[in-house]
Amino acid sequence: MKNCLGEKELIDIFLTELPVSPYMQNKFFESDAEVLTCGTGKLLFTTDEFSDEDLFRTDNPFRLGYNLAAATISDILAVSGIPYSYAHAIKACSSWDREYVTQLAQGIGAVLKICGIGSIGGDMGMASHWSYTGTCLGFSPNPISRKGATERDHIYMTGAIGAGNIEAAFSLYDREQIVQLESQFAENYFPVRIKESKLIGQWASCCIDTSDGVLNALNTLAELNGLGYKVENLPYLPESKLLCRLLKVPKEALFIGECGEYELLFAVPPENNKAFLKAAHANDLTFTLIGEFTKAETRTLTDDGKVWNLERYSISARDYSSKQEYLDKLLDFLRNESYN
To answer: What spatial distance separates the first Cα and last Cα of the chain, rounded to whole Å?
Structure first.
């Protein structure tokens, strides 16, 4: 067999060879969920696959099911959509017993109940390794996309950084190194930002979820909008900072790492900022200002008095044959490329 294709090459082949739906409103990659015309409204569609490679912990089946569903629906919320119906294809691991699968289903169901939606079916099977493909339909009268930001727009995010990389750490590192963390962060549930999504749609110029990490989300928005950015004073989960101390790695690895926390990252134009913050306060919602968009040639992170020029960062996990090699390169950049 010839050398393996990368994910981007696979996507390009199918985009070239398959006809595009005439009902599709956005271009591919410009929106977390695809937007299609449906009568006088906008139908939203997203589908995503998960497996062992995503490094979700499997010791708690309810948590696993909950996080799989929350991660799937996140794309609908990132376009300020309202979830409508849910379906999935499950390959259950052959070692899972009835109790395990029941709790997995209950976790998925808990998220659907939070969203006020139901399942419309799917496909089930067994395999030596588990995999899960979640699909969600939604609707929105005025969906928001990844495009629309301009220079000087404020960059905000929901929640804090680190939940996804904590999940990954339990798979990547010796459990003896992080046993203290496991007892403090046993119930790591991804967010379902329904209320936040609605408000973001009213005031933001663009939005994306952080499923592939905050840095990847930032870079995607910057590239699509022809902009750069300056970010600082990032909000880290206390548990994630403890993780970094235990593993003796810079906490900024949580920002750069590609196992995301499924928060929402978005931009608000300066002229909307006061009204946005007033509306957030009125709705008892909290967002963190992490920076602003700038001219395209600038991409910097400032944290604890150190500055990183992120234009120099071009490391991607998909480019390495082992996760350890990728982590070594990431940490080498953080330790050697900062300045005061």
So the answer is: 49
Sheet holding 34-38, edge to edge: 34-38, 41-51, 131-139, 82-93, 118-127
Query: Which residues, 6+ apart, have CB-to-CB distance to 321 below 8 Å?
Result: none
Q: Which of 258, 260, 234 is nearest to 74 (CA)?
A: 260
Nearest to 86 by CA among 57, 51, 48: 48
CB atoms within 10 A of CB 75: 25
Where does a domain end: 111, 139, 167?
139
Q: Smallest Cα–Cα separation from 192: which of 120, 263, 285, 121?
A: 263
Query: The domain spanning residue 264 has which CATH number?
Result: 3.90.650.10
What is the residue type of 240?
Answer: S
Asked if residues 177 and 246 have their Cβ atoms less than 8 Å apart, the reply is: yes
Place of tokens 């009568």: 39
Helix (H, G, I), strand (E, B), or coil: what is residue 298?
coil
Question: Dihedrals φ, ψ of 137, to 5°?
Answer: -105, 145
Is the Cβ–Cβ distance between 139 and 116 less than 8 Å? no
| Residues across the chain | 340
Do 191 and 330 belong together in one domain? yes
Which tokens sit at 163? 């939940």
Gap between the Cα atoms of 107 and 60, Å rounded: 10
Residues with Cβ within 8 Å of residue 45, at least 6 apart in sequence:
33, 34, 36, 135, 136, 137, 138
pLDDT per residue rounded down to tens, the chain (340 residues): 345 566 676 677 667 766 777 777 778 777 777 777 777 678 899 999 999 888 888 889 999 999 999 999 999 999 999 999 998 999 989 898 889 999 999 999 999 999 999 888 888 888 999 999 999 999 988 899 999 999 999 999 999 998 888 888 777 766 566 666 666 666 788 999 999 999 999 999 999 999 999 999 999 999 999 999 999 989 998 888 888 888 888 999 999 998 889 999 999 999 999 999 999 999 999 999 999 999 998 999 999 899 999 999 999 888 888 888 988 999 999 999 988 8
In a domain, 144, yes or no: no
